[in-house]
Structure formats: C-alpha cells, structure tokens
Write a structure and sequence with these properties.
152 residues; 7-stranded parallel β-sheet; alpha/beta; 7 strands
C-alpha cells in the first residue's frame, strides 16, 4: 500500500498539552509517542535529531496518529515545562500537573541535557520492580495518562 500526502498538510498548531521529544532517535518510539499523544489529546514537538515521524516504522507505530496529532513548533511550546527524568525527580503522583503544559522526554540513550531541563520541574515515574528505567514510549504514555486522569 502506498499513501501520498503533502507534508505541509499534516496537522499543525498546538494543544494545551504538548509532548516534546528531545532527540528520540528510534522511529518506533516516535510513532508510539504520537499514538499516545493522540489518545490523550496532546500535541507533539520534535527536536532536531528526532527520527522522521513519516518513516515507515514511525508511521506503522503511530497507527495513523500522525494525521491527527498537531506537530508543534519547538519554539511554541507551552510555558510550564515538566521534564521526565529516570532518577532524582519528584514522583509524578506528587506533582501538581495542569494544562497548559509541556512534558519533555529525552532520547533513549542520553536522556535530557541538563541545560534543557534546567528551567523544568523534574518528575520521575517510580518503579517498584527491578527495572532501572522505562522505555521513552512507555514513560511518555504514563505521564500523559497521569495528567489526563487529574484533568478528567
């Protein structure tokens, strides 16, 4: 199957909640995060260095969400920034989250650089099991769910 569309015809603009992906290189993770953003009515911002959301693997993982989720310009992110970090943040259940809000997630290997997370409220998803950290796709989905649970 082949799909033809104009790249500039993809949804644009912003939403009250934006999931900002910092150098997420795996196209499957980019697609998964687009799909999660679609489920929780969020926009997505892609930094330089992110995988192409229109690549075959990202398109499959997004399950069509790329055609519904607005791609937000990195410079137009909502002002309240929450950085998801693997360790050292406040447990997400203890943080007052409310839109408008930007949820920043980092790359699979390097997380978020300190200068990017400097002005952010740092939150962590506590893991009671043996895992040291979560996949970026799982962490982003959990954070969006936690936010939507509070707003509903």
């Amino acid at each position: 199957m082949i799909g033809i569309f104009r790249r500039d015809g993809l949804p644009a603009g912003t939403r009250d909640v934006v999931l900002a992906l910092w150098q997420v290189a795996d196209p499957g993770n980019v697609g998964t995060l687009l799909r999660s953003a679609d489920a929780f009515d969020a926009g997505v911002a892609l930094s330089e260095g992110c995988a192409d959301p229109l690549g075959p693997k990202a398109l499959r993982a997004s399950a069509g969400a790329i055609f519904r989720v607005p791609l937000v310009d990195w410079e137009a992110l909502p002002n309240a920034h929450v950085a998801l970090v693997a360790h050292g943040g406040v447990p997400i259940a203890e943080v007052p989250l409310a839109p408008p809000l930007t949820l920043l997630v980092g790359s699979e290997r390097g997380s978020l650089p300190d200068d990017l997370a400097l002005d952010c409220f740092r939150v962590t998803i506590p893991l009671p099991g043996r895992a040291e950290s979560l996949n970026v796709g799982a962490a982003g989905a959990i954070a969006l769910y936690e936010l939507s649970r509070r707003v509903s």
